[in-house]
Amino acid sequence: MSWQSLAFAIVLAMALVSLGGAQQSLPAQKILSQIAAGQPVHYDGIAITGDLDLSTLPGAQIPAAFALFNCTIPDASFEGITFAEDAFFWGSSFGNASFQGATFLGRADFANTSFRQASFAGCTFYQPALFGGALFENDLSFEDTAFGLDASFHDVRFLGRVDFNYSDFDSYSYFAAAEFSEDAFFSDVDLSATSDFSAATFSGQANFIRSRLNEPYFGDVLFSGPAQFGMARFSGLTSFGGAVFADEAGFGLARFSDAAYFSGAHFQDLALFGLARFEDIVTFQDTRFDGDLNFKSGSITSLLFDEAELKEGSRIILNDTEINLFRAHWKEIQDHVAWQPGAYLALVENYRRLGWLEDEDDCYYQYRKLDQASKGWGWSKIIDILAWLSCGYGVRPSYAVVWSLVTILIFGLVFWIGDGIRRSSKPLSGPVEKDSIPERATLRNALFFSTMIFLSQGPIDFLPVGRHRYYVMLEMILGWLLLALFLVTLGKVMIR
Question: What is the CATH number of the domain that holds 185?
Fold first, then answer.
């Protein structure tokens, strides 16, 4: 073959490729005619001209298979249409498209499609509905839509507001890695089977109020706007592991029938679980809280809080909360539990049930200190201060030991400095020297005498003189009191 023939072949091949890449035009009327004749529709890579309006079809039904692959469809209306067989729109590009009230008796494949403006409100999908990789450029409605089998929305980009309110998902729903650029509404939605929102992004409001979610998975989801799950009902294992809540997270009045998992999540604003009910175990292990964690008037069956991190100033609000088991060591949360007597006493009882005796004592000690600080001056406050100083409100036996040593030291110094005791002229044994003079006590003698007085009674070879006899009586009374406090406190701490 000559070089001229080779060059001509190359040019011809390039021309054919160019022609093959260009979309051929097809009038919408031809498609309508095929449907009216009961013929299947199957086109790939065509540009439909005119308005593809099927809403006026006789019987409002497409009886045969309908397939438009990689097509360009400027305007289309399928309102109220029933697709009796499979409907394929894979890779197609829609301008304005309305599928309101449409019924899909076969499979509906909208994978990798793009819509400038679309509505699927009131649709019914009896077979799997596939929207993976689709693009919705403006506001979108799936309100009151029924998905009978699997619904796949993985990697979908919703650039406008999206509305799934009042929809029913009777089978698996898949929203993994979906991108919600504006507000996303899933209010009063019934997600009866497992739902997967893993790694999805909610840039606006995420509204799941009053929805029913079964085994929902929100692992590693980013909620940039408010996340609203108020009055939602969660069943099966619920997971928000690794999720980030950049704005308020609202779970008020929510109910978790089974285990809930929030480990590794990050709440950057208020975490509101007021009046929420956790009927099974809930885990907040290794979770970070930059704002308040509010469980006010909620119910907690079993909560794990190991290694959770609370930012300085963050509060744990447990007012009127019913607590069965709250597994968080007191040292980890003591600076964050908001003051409310009932909440502290509930935690004390919680630690008693867990058998965490040190945490029980520390929590009770903090409770008594805060309770004392909230009182006005009076006998009640004075008695509280004495109970604090003497025995640490009955949970610090070391306090009584310290005060006992201080008492012995002070009275020993008083007896020594004031020359308040003398050695008796009649020793316990040995001959008595005639006209002997009692000796002045040394500091060691004074401390020994003070110790014996504190514990029981003084040695008979030392006697108090003058007003120091009254000091002996005072020290003896203090000794009885402090020893009794020590024994009672020690018994409470050790014998239990």
Answer: 2.160.20
Q: Positive or negative, the Cα torsion across 378, 383, 386, 387? A: negative
pLDDT of residue 190: 96
Residue 449 C-alpha from the chain's centroid: 62
CA 387 remoteness from chain centre: 39
Residue 18 pLDDT exceeds 70: no
Residues 82 and 31 in one domain: yes
Give the residue from 76, 147, 60, 80 showing the smallest Cα distance to 116: 76
pLDDT beyond 50 at 30:
yes
Mean pLDDT over residues 311-317, rounded? 94
Task: Report how many domains make up the chain.
Answer: 3
DSSP sequence for 463-485: EE-TTHHHHHHHHHHHHHHHHHH
**Sequence-distant (≥ 6) Cβ neighbours of residue 168 within 8 angstroms:** 145, 146, 147, 189, 190, 192
Q: How confident is the model at residue 99, as a pLDDT?
A: 96
The answer to whether the beta carbons of residues 239 and 261 sit under 8 Å apart is yes
Domain range for 77 is 24-196
End-to-end CA distance of the chain: 104
Instruction: Give the separation between CA 407 and CA 411, rounded to whole angstroms.
Output: 6
Listed residue (274, 235, 229, 233) closest to 249, CA to CA: 229
Mean of the per-residue pLDDT values for the chain? 86
Supply the pLDDT for residue 491.
Answer: 61
Is the pLDDT at 167 greater than 80? The verdict is yes
